[in-house]
Amino acid sequence: MGFQQEDFEYKDLYKEDTYLSDVLGFYCEKENESNIGSDLSRFSAKAKESILHLMWEAEANPPVHRAFDHWGKRVDEIVMHPSWDKLHRVSAEEGIVAIGYERATGIDSRLHQFLKLMIFHPSSAFYTCPLAMTDGAARVLEIHSTEERKQYFSHIVSRDPDQFWTAGQWMTEKAGGSDVSLSETTAEFREGKYYLTGVKWFTSAITAQVAMTLAQTEVEGKLRLSLFLVKIRNEKGTLNNIEVLRLKDKLGTKAMPTAELKLNGVEGELIGELGAGVKNITTVLNISRLYNSVCATGTIYRLHSLIRDYSLKRKAFGKKLIDHPLHQETLLKTQADAKACVHFISQLAKSLGRVELGQADSEEEAFLRVFTPVAKLWTAKKSVSITSELVEAFGGAGYIEDTHIPRFLRDAQVFSIWEGTTNIMSLDTLRALSKDQNLLEMMNFLERMIKKIPHDKNLKKIQDLLTEAKEWVGKNASHNENLQRGARVLAFALADGLAGLLLLEFALHTGKERDKYMVELFIENISWPRWNTTEDSKQRVEETLLS
Ligand code: MFK
Fold this sequence. Notes:
- The protein has about 550 residues and is an alpha+beta fold.
- The protein contains 18 helices and eleven strands.
- A hairpin with a 2-residue loop joins strand 6 (about 210-220) and strand 7 (about 220-230).
């Protein structure tokens, strides 16, 4: 027999090296480290063994919409492969949502949950998407709690697979994608109850039991969006006045059923104040944007582990790939970015944990609000570019479906779209910065980090970057068009600045050469922001885009 390439291996991400346990040690309280570490270590082995196979089965057997039964009766059944149900059961048993609400490790519960989610995601067939919306719904129900809602909540945070419910988040409509205010679904109030009618254009995970959705309601003679909780199925398991129009044929996330739905007067329970729907649903959005960031990070962390293993096995031009200087340079850079993403989500998890338990000050609250959209857009873009680079690093094998590598690239593209595009996230960063004292307070929070790090050329570069970003906002505070044009540049500068600080602090904590190299690699590759102004841009737009 001729040459046979040795296959690459799915390593145990937590035990492959000490990186994730060092990250845990840096961010979590000493008393929680061993409990969280042993759960991550156990789960990580499971994720690369039994759970991984569930993902491949689910991916190979995508959902099917069976609209009618054999007598022509409308049934709208979503036929799922049994592996999808098994992923539901694993999610419940492992407490992927529950950990965030049981709060067994106090302020570190979100950190525990997010690191576990990061390990789970690349084996989950995007079951993490319904979990993201479920977690967001749990937070809404926790904030707007009533006796009846406590029952829903207990299902949503259950670890019993037969009791565990997932929740959808139905927001996007034909007219209202990013601009949700254009939504056409209406809620009619009759005999003390609301009934919703309209079409929801993107409803991921139609296998859920409940959903959070928006509908227009009349408030003082004007139509305004309100938030509703909808029970999707009745006791028999059939849909409650909901028709499935079709399943979406998506670029990726093939195992996950995303549907177009027609609401034919489905009952909805008003959550929060009438007319405050957009504001109230942002609780779901902010949680699911953080999930998005964690899953994007998990994607590149797993793919990096795979290419590292492959590079140790594959030979070309007389030596292993890992021994080729240019291949080394490629992986060094992507590795620095992947590790920076791990720090980003860990810091946000830590802050979220503190904010939710009322243990954060206003500076940390401002930091979390501003850096939630920044994390979402930055990790999403990193995920798209790094997966593209690493799929390429596999050569032709990376383009062939049965290696399971192409899926990484297809799936990565959803991160920058799902729950708001990069531009929408950049504008949300501006929205967050312009509210109250957020700019100042968020900067004070970063200043607290800066003070812990000894001064050197790397810290200076980060300080200069953050100072320039702050001054640019100040200079353009009353020039909205300039602010909008520069919103992306600003968001990326803030992201690079935070990532640099976290890597610096981490290297100081571990004292390891590995981490000092990561700081150098990451910081030397930061490209300096170019702040375009309206004066620069107007002529260019007229002479190019509009000509
Ligand atoms: C995983 C697989 C996925 C499968 C495929 C899926 C493909 C993609 C499917 C999709 O369609 S995903 C797209 C989902 N859509 C979005 O994520 C919506 C994106 N748009 C936004 O996020 C807009 O920024 C938003 C709709 C929220 C803006 O709407 P408005 O009406 O212009 O908001 P406005 O008036 O600025 O804010 C209303 C209030 O909410 C304000 O509070 P106040 O009334 O107290 O001033 C804001 O401060 C507050 N707010 C807005 N965003 C917030 C927020 N508060 C906290 N956090 C936020 N993020």
